[in-house]
Amino acid sequence: MKKIKGGVTSAKGFTVASTAAGIKYENREDMALLYSKKPCHVAGTFTSNVVKAAPVLWDRRIIREEKRDVHAVVVNTGIANAGTGKRGYMCCEKTAAKVAELLGIDENEVLVGSTGVIGPLLDMDKIYKGIEEMVPRLSDSIEAADKASCAIMTTDTHPKQSAVEFEISGVKVTLGGMSKGSGMIHPNMCTMLGYITTDACISSELLQKALSEDVVDTFNMISVDGDTSTNDTLILMANGEAGNPEIREDTNDYYTFKEALNTVTKELARMMAADGEGASKLMTCNVINAPDMFRARVLAKSVITSSLVKAAVFGNDANWGRILCAMGYSGVDFDPENIDLSIEAEGYDRMLIYSHGETADFSEEEATNILKQDEVIITADMKNGDCDATAWGCDLTYDYVKINADYRS
Amino acid sequence: MKKIKGGVTSAKGFTVASTAAGIKYENREDMALLYSKKPCHVAGTFTSNVVKAAPVLWDRRIIREEKRDVHAVVVNTGIANAGTGKRGYMCCEKTAAKVAELLGIDENEVLVGSTGVIGPLLDMDKIYKGIEEMVPRLSDSIEAADKASCAIMTTDTHPKQSAVEFEISGVKVTLGGMSKGSGMIHPNMCTMLGYITTDACISSELLQKALSEDVVDTFNMISVDGDTSTNDTLILMANGEAGNPEIREDTNDYYTFKEALNTVTKELARMMAADGEGASKLMTCNVINAPDMFRARVLAKSVITSSLVKAAVFGNDANWGRILCAMGYSGVDFDPENIDLSIEAEGYDRMLIYSHGETADFSEEEATNILKQDEVIITADMKNGDCDATAWGCDLTYDYVKINADYRS
């Protein structure tokens, strides 16, 4: 397993292009097109929100209901195409049809993704023009992947990509992806927009199994603001161009593939949490020695979701009472007298702040120094089992309020 | 039913005092003592947080397990006495014992309440001194109640009291109370600290029933920041001094009593939401025509809890997409194409902003004017039943972050 520079074009046979279609922003790239000449098996996880954006309905139909292979994904930022009713769904169909026409494929082999403001309809003339500009520019270069990862951003402050190389039965396989945050992030079954490509040879069913198993500990374990978006979509495409023998369930190859997938999804998830709207630092919560995975996950996520914990971390305040409180209302039962809470950061030892039902004897000054670092790690030792989970969030800052108080204006 | 000026001393036979014990603040009253010479039947609802502050454990034992009548409640602000283990519980016992000694009652007839920072132990010398100062000052005056309602505040910007007079079988009965917010407010089975007194004659069992039935639509329907405190406590005391025939279950008298209780709890709940940390306005969400009460409550609470809705309301932005999104991830299933969303405020007509799955044709300027008012009312018409629920919250502002980033410093 080797981490490499790159993203959606790292795997063989994938090309990408982006353009400034003027959907919301002037002079900023806001569309991306991802294409594999060879058809791809595809897996997807989507928002659990009852209110699903039109592109989510479009993609789910193709992936989950009709179980088709696909060739392309077209994404726009600026407008979410959510809360747009039947006319919004028609926009997806028209968008896919335009891509299909220019690439010589079927419209049902084109996935669609949108992110941005809920409500407005897409201006199809701009979308058509964007697609026409992108098709001739499709490239398998790292630069094209870099540009695409920027084009899909909204309030993100930097692009998010990750890629790895690994071997399946002696054959080199590559997997890489891109994703975007950064507000309305509290994924449930997946995250905002994430696109991962691989040249591995693997069936659709196993691809979906790997993705579904993976997200519970990666994309579903991050939160910026507790709001689960209408558009959350994570797509994993495999075109088989690596030429490896097909990956089978419950084999070492499968576990290698899952490890590769996990390396990329975890890195993207961490990047999204760290780049949450207004965030000044990444906040990681490890819950260790819990009785089961479910409880470990719920506890970890409750801590990183708490507004009061987030504000305390912003203020470099080792306010363990708020951490304990957030665990206490998570819905998971535990004995508050029998857990340990500690904090740590790179370059600093783990420091115990709460134990035996009371505050630990710690230096507030040293604690403040730890909390000032770029990644603050909170560890809750439940001392009641052997299951561990990690969740990632960010601090709550003035900028979060600023960004969201005038997002539409 | 008549609203009157007053609070915990409005009902016959209740006296109160407050003092500056120097627990956290200098020169600010931070303790209150409530006393009825006649023993009171008492009902209580407490935090659902697994981590329960010592005073919650003390009060629960007396009210729920031992079902005792009580005479007094002593409250301090500044320190929550939570996360303090056995030593914290000992503080409650010592506090109650001191009050009992000076008033000539049993220590198990004294309830204890604390609010403030989680972690530190109470300084018992200060508590003793405070109690000694308060006992001789006990008074049934409105001024004493006013001062006590100020003494129990933490980050509240103003005190919260409410009182009503009503008749039970021709006898005048009074019920009044005080409460405090204003952060870590997302009550579950009750709120931060609330104390309500009445001179009604009613059994402990029926008192508890009335309170438990009431909170689901009042204190449990407010949220400031989604954090359920370790200290949430709502106490209702009845000393029977009005001399009314005992209120029996399922009688008109009982419904009259419940209406009086609801008038006071609803007013206190609204005051707490409006005075949420950093809040610039009250945000009310009515969910109407839902298939059942449970769904109506969950939907309403999800809207007022959403950070993105709260930030949009702060920014006077009629961003209905965020309202729809918050309903969508509430866990309640509904058809987003078949609901109406509207906003209104005092002096402005209700304005439809979303209908038939798409944006309504409304004036953004007029919407902004509505959102600038002190109370913004969001109504979601589910068109799928006849159950209505209301939740109260507040906007998310820079000041919320400011208050919570340096709460301990």
Report on the structure:
The structure is a homodimer of 409-residue chains. By secondary structure, chain A is of the alpha+beta class. Chain A folds into 2 domains: 2-274, L-amino peptidase D-ALA esterase/amidase (4-Layer Sandwich), CATH 3.60.70.12; 282-405, ArgJ beta chain, C-terminal domain (Ubiquitin-like (UB roll)). In chain A, 33% of the residues lie in helices and 28% in strands. Chain A is built from 11 helices and 15 strands. Chain A has helices at residues 54-65, 85-103, 124-134, 142-151, 204-215, 252-274, 293-305, 307-314, 320-328, 364-371, 398-405; strands at 2-4, 14-19, 31-46, 70-79, 110-117, 160-168, 171-180, 193-198, 233-238, 282-290, 340-345, 348-355, 358-359, 375-381, 387-394. In chain A, strands 1, 2, 3, 4, 5, 6, 7, 8 and 9 form a 9-stranded mixed beta sheet that branches. In chain A, strands 13-12-11-14-10-15 form a 6-stranded mixed beta sheet. In chain A, strand 8 (193-198), helix 5 (204-215) and strand 9 (233-238) form a beta-alpha-beta unit. In chain A, helix 1 packs across helix 2, helix 5 (204-215) packs across helix 6 and helix 7 (293-305) packs across helix 9 (320-328). The longest helix of chain A has 23 residues, at 252-274. The first copy, chain A, is globular and about 70 Å long. At the A-B interface, helix 2, helix 8, helix 9, strand 13 and helix 11 of A face helix 2, helix 8, helix 9, strand 13 and helix 11 of B.
Descriptors:
409 residues, homodimer, 2 domains, 6-stranded mixed beta sheet, 9-stranded mixed beta sheet, Ubiquitin-like (UB roll), alpha+beta, L-amino peptidase D-ALA esterase/amidase
